[in-house]
Amino acid sequence: MGTNGSTVLEPLRQGLPPIDPGAVSTSASCALPARYEAVRGARKFTSATLDSWDLGDRFDDVALVVSELVTNALRHALPEGSPDDPQGPPVRLHLMRWASRLVCAVRDPSRQSPEARGGEEDFSAESGRGLFLVESFSDSWGWHPLAGTLQGKVVWALFRVGPEE
User: Fold this and answer.
1) In this structure, what is the dihedral angle of CA atoms 137, 138, 139, 141, given to the nearest 10 degrees?
2) Which residue has the higher pLDDT, 148 or 74?
C-alpha cells in the first residue's frame, strides 16, 4: 500500500472499530464541490467504485448513507456562501474496503460535532434525519476531529460485507 492510502487511513484510526488499517485491500476518494449537485456526483462515484469492487449489490444502503453524510457536510460544515477554496475542495469522500468491511468517510472543514436530532417534533422534519438514517442503514458510525495541519472532521460509517467473521 502506498503512502497515500496510509495517510487517508491515519485520521480514521482513532474512531474506527478495531480493524488493522494496514490490511485495507483498496481505497478510493474524490473531492466534492461545495454545491448540492455534489451529492449526485458522490452517488455516481460510489456506484462505480462498488461495481469495481464487486459490491454493487450493496449500492442502495451505501449510497443512502453517502448521500446523507455528504448532504450534512454541505449543509452544516461549510461557511455560509463560501467561495471555492483555492486550497482545494472542502469536502472529500473516501471509500475504503477491507476483506469483510467497507467504510465510507466524509471529510469536511468544520470541527463542530455532528448531531442526530431526537424528539418527535424533529423526527418528521426533513432536516435532522440524516444521522438517524446513517445509524439505521450502516453497522456503525462515528466521527472525530482531524489532527495536525488538516482542519475539520471526518464522519464515517462502516458496513459489513463479504464473509461473516
Assistant:
1) -130
2) 74
